[in-house]
Amino acid sequence: MNDTESFSVMLGPEEKTIPVICSWCRNVFDTRKWQIPYGGRITPDYGICLDCLRRVRAESVGRPDPKTSVKTFGILIVDDEGNFCGMLSDMLHPLGYRIIMCGGGEDAVECYSKLYSGIDLVLLDLKMPGMDGYETFLNLKKINPGIKAIVMTGYARDNDVREILAAGALCVMEKPFSPGTLIERIRDVLPP
User: Fold this and answer.
1) E strand spans, 44-93
2) Whole-angstrom Cα distance, residue 119 to residue 90?
3) Could you give the domains of the chain?
4) Longest dimension (CA), the chain
5) CA 126 – CA 80 distance, rounded (Å)
6) End-to-end CA distance of the chain, in Å?
7) If we measure between CA atoms, which residue out of 13, 152, 24, 14 comes closest to residue 76?
8) What is the pLDDT of residues 115-125, one digit of tens each?
9) pTM, entire model
10) For 60-90, how does the pLDDT look when each residue is reduced to its tens digit (9 = 90+)?
């Protein structure tokens, strides 16, 4: 994988005010040294979508020594709630995971089709507007039949859970869940 990862960040409709957007952007983009290319867009149903490029500077992270380096796992987070994606990223990135975020199913399928060889696990929200988690999972599985996915939901019916597990998802986690529980599930799938 090269030094540029592409992903989308979503802000919900309740967060459309300019001060909130500016504050959020300044905080997130400055601290992570992200660059926003042209192409950010506003969608009436979802809020504001910024297509972002994250540039990792070799001098800031150093070059790994192939003799001593450990594989860095890539995780794709797919959730229509931008704050939740950001929280997961902030929690998992310091543990050494490469994080890619998408704000919806359509973006996730496009991203996964280009980057799936560098994505070891997908954290997927089940209930999203547009392409829901089940449909997204089926499309991702067409790209990579060996996909590993943990599904997250706060609104699932038993039938929805059975359906996605039968399709091949590893497990379903009910929101809210503790950070420790999520990390434990991830390490079950991607041992350190």
Assistant:
1) 47-55, 74-78
2) 18
3) 4-58+70-189 (3.40.50.2300)
4) 50
5) 10
6) 20
7) 152
8) 999 999 999 99
9) 0.66
10) 333 344 444 456 899 999 999 989 999 999 9
Residue entry with tokens 């529980």: 181
SS3 27: helix
**Which residue, among 78, 90, 96, 82, has the nearest Cα to 140 in the 3D structure?**
78
Calculated CA dihedral for residues 127, 189, 69, 117, nearest 10 degrees: -60
% of the chain with per-residue pLDDT over 70:
63
pLDDT number for residue 128: 94
Is residue 109 scored above 80 in pLDDT?
yes
Specify whether the CB–CB gap between 74 and 97 falls below 8 A: yes
pLDDT of residue 70: 56
Q: How far is CA 153 from the centre of its chain?
A: 14
User: CA dihedral defined by 76, 81, 85, 87, rounded to 10 degrees?
Assistant: -160
Partners of 150 in the β-ladder: 123, 171
- Sign of the dihedral through C-alpha 6, 11, 12, 16: negative
Distance CA 118, CA 134 (A): 22
Coil, strand or helix: which one is 114? helix
Take residue 13 and report the two structure tokens written for it: 């409709």
State both tokens at 45: 């149903």
**What digits encode the pLDDT tens for the residues 146-171?**
999 999 998 878 889 999 999 999 99
Cβ-based burial of 154 (10 A; exposed 0-12, middle 13-18, buried ≥19): middle
